[in-house]
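Methods: example folding runs. The two proteins below were folded one after another, and each record is reproduced exactly as written to the output file, sequence line first and structure-token line second.
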Amino acid sequence: MATQLSGVAPPPLCRNAQPNGPNPSALGADSSPRSTVNSTIQAHRRKFVDEGKLRKISGRLFSDSIPRRSTRLAGETGANTNTSSTTVAGNGTSHSSKYLGGAKLSSVACRSVTVRKGQSWANENCDEGTRHDVFDDSRSNITAMTSSSSSSGITRSLEQEGAIMPVGGVFMNSSRILGGASEILGLLRILGEGYRLSCMYRCQDALDVYLKLPHKHYNTGWVLSQVGKAYFELVDYLEAARAFSLARRACPHGLEGMDVYSTVLYHLKEDMKLSYLAQELVSTDRLAPQSWCAMGNCYSLQKDHETALKNFQRAVQLNSRFAYAHTLCGHEYVALEDYENGIKSYQSALRIDARHYNSWYGLGMVYLRQEKLEFSEHHFRMAFQINPRSSVIMSYLGTALHALKRSEDALEMMERAILADKKNPLPMYQKANILVSMERFGEALEVLEELKEYAPRESSVYALMGKIYKRRNMHEKAMLHFGLALDLKPSATDVATIKAAIEKLHVPDEIEDNL
């Protein structure tokens, strides 16, 4: 045996060897080549153990050399390091833990049982190796402060120096966190209040609330779009276009409110801007209903109602729950005098959104043209209940009431419409019409003289004044105002009406009514 093992390192002593002599079976096993390999592995293992202990000691030396935030904390940390037995708290978290995240999870797994002297080096060094690989000791001190809630000394230290809390891997002062949370909640409160008022169509109140936002939050795409919608509901198209333009500049690829922006440009007759907007939206997203609503408004402004209808139907195909696209389809059907399909489109929009007042208004207009006055008054009143601040809805509701021979109610509604929006000429004109029907010509002329200041180039105003002068047998003034109305280039229907009134200028009203 000595001859066979002369060139091999002697194997380690076996603790279970008998004192009287070696076990023959054990010696036979040790004399095999596998014994040689095992002895070599064990030799390397002993060397690895020494390196691990050296790394552990060096880590402690380096960690102790870093200045502590508190000498009291340094003493407690040293005491925890030198203890022979480290136990796990009742909730599964060690009080000597100095780390967060995945390092904490691995250490808890290693410390799930009590670590004692004489235990394998792997369990002893599990948390130390992970600790120094993931975090430095200065950061681990801060984490130990926040995780040791049961230590009264650490609690007093936190109260004296200010609590430190981990947020997304970054340690911040608790006062700063509370201040930031309070600021965010205040910002969300303002945004929510403004949006709530907009949904209630209290548009001026919503604008006042949005003005409370800081400058950097006000000049964002979403907020400016909401401001543009509010001005649109207030029939202030110039301010609405300005707000939407700023929203496009702040968020060039945003689609929020662009369908309303296209309608604003439609009312302002800005055909070039509307065409450019439609092309930009289609190039941005061809599958968005807002893009095709803008394209439809572009063709509708050019009086190409059939092509406009196809574009609005395309928007409905892309999103059947987009109520405004159904309403725009209804407007085009009415322009094409297809009232049956127009009513179906408006009703489809109301099935999606019962508070979409534009569809109630559209149905009221259809029934007013069909002279179904009770239906018209009902639908206009429904729209008025949803949006009680719209002067346009008040004006047409007053018109329906006047057609139903309820002149006093109609006159009261027109007064409310004038107070709601003094810049809107429609209720003033309708009020003058109602006064003429009640034969209160002097009051009607006063209203029309005031209206000329708001709409100096409106031919219908001069035509109605000519009619009043004719009823009062003031033929020269009547002829003057009829001529002014023709000079302002009214529509073909109005031209025919004005010329007929000029031909019958000297015919008494009683005979004219019989004719």
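Second run, written to the same file directly after the first:
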Amino acid sequence: MKQSQMLIPTLKENPADAEIMSHQLLVRAGYIRQLASGIYSFLPIGRRVLSKVEAIVREEMEKIGAHEMLMPALEPSELWKETGRWTTFGSELMRINDRHGREFALGATHEEVITSMVRNEVKSYKQLPLSVYQIQTKFRDEARPRFGLLRGREFLMKDAYSFNESYESLDQTYEQMFEAYSNVFRRCGLNFRAVIADSGAMGGKDTHEFMVLSEVGEDVIAYSDTSRYAANIEMAPVNRTYTKSDETPLEMEKVHTPDQKTMRDVADFLGHELQKGLKSILFKVDEKFVMTITRGDHEVNDVKLKNLYDAELIDLASEAEAREVVGAGFGSLGPVDVSEDVEVVADFAVEALVNVSCGANEEGYHFTNVTPGKDFQVSQYADLRFIEEGDPSPDGEGKIKFARGIEVGHVFKLGEFYSERMKATFLNDQGKATTMIMGSYGIGVSRTLAAIVEQYHDERGITWPANIAPYQVHLLSLNPKKEDQKELADALYNTLIEAGVEVLYDDRKERAGVKFADSDLFGVPLRITVGKRASEGVVEVKERMSSNQYDLEQEEVLNYVTNWYKS
């Protein structure tokens, strides 16, 4: 393709709103352009990279017997109401009404749609297992779109769905999908980890996220320093035992603590270590008030709390609700003499404490010398805190370390979460109606593109892996006004195109410096420059990633390019 005929607008400076490298480079190199906050157009060169990623996805899906289809992006609310997700999915679901007042959602995901279709079309165990997928634009009303393609309101996603007759069959499909996803990300050249994750609004129990390691990642991965264990920090259990303090319990006292709101404020005011205070947080768990108690130096993990209660909805109580139910605002909450309308649960670490401080449920007051079991009761102790670096690895091997990651894929064992609610059944081999067992599997195609750039770039621009790059060769004619350069460049272009090589031909009437700068920005793996030695039939070939460069005769170029891509 001749560059003079293409829409590839490049920029010298980074866009003001671009905070991370992938956002900066994809905009500067003319791969994407923003239409509105979190909404991007893929320009021709960007579309080519998307197509390369899609092709890898399709090949890996075909290998495991998953077949492509395409479902509507406009989804009737009735389907979402069958599963209850019309209310539980939250504000990210984009809802619209048609001219007749009927409610629809712009597809954020398609579990309801595919389940509705399969329940109508699949009747017998002989039609199972079944796996289908699509590559389609999805919509989510992000509160704060940022980081370019990594957190948008409109994005390209591959979503797959499996229907099985048993959990054993689901396990087999899940493993196939897991390996297919691993293959996709390996083929994209990514350094990634598959980590244990939470299913969130998707439902189901067993799930893994595929995380690309990157400092700009919004998720934290907890991993062992000596084993293969890895989990999203939300899901990593704490396998630490706590030794009960041998202090003698003292009499509880109420102390005036004016204007001391945070755990650090209170600890400094009372003159004790942070871990000698109790942190009390009030949640609404499916409309039930629950107060969590952790050590002052620990952070409560709301995902663990949600899973403890097997809840559909969990949220922090408002300060007004805290004052109404407990009698005090944030900063003064505590478990002593708390209302019967509030259930108190505590982290395992709390059970070992003696003579600690906590809020007195009265503004500006705290209790000291508080001991669990003596001064307040706990309905149950559980693992409620976030794991920390240095904690023992949950698999018993090594210590926990943290890394940041970009989520590019997610696989779920949904079980009967959707099929039971939507009455998706089949007749088993004994003629009995049986609920289908489901799985759901997603890859963020546009996010994957951005994640690749986060791992493949340098100070000059993008350095695409060879099989993902928009073109295989970037051919530069430094001065097309000179007949010898134009003739040689045209001849090489035709030779490479006829041989099936993907070529971007910079035939523009631009300065050499502009062409070199743009070429570095684009990140095409091989650059062939036709310059001063054109009259000798000699060109310069440069490898973008390694910067190795060679002078080659015209007759050597095709053989070099072909062999380079084979190696």
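Comment on the second run: Residues 473-566 form a domain with the Rossmann fold fold (CATH 3.40.50.800).
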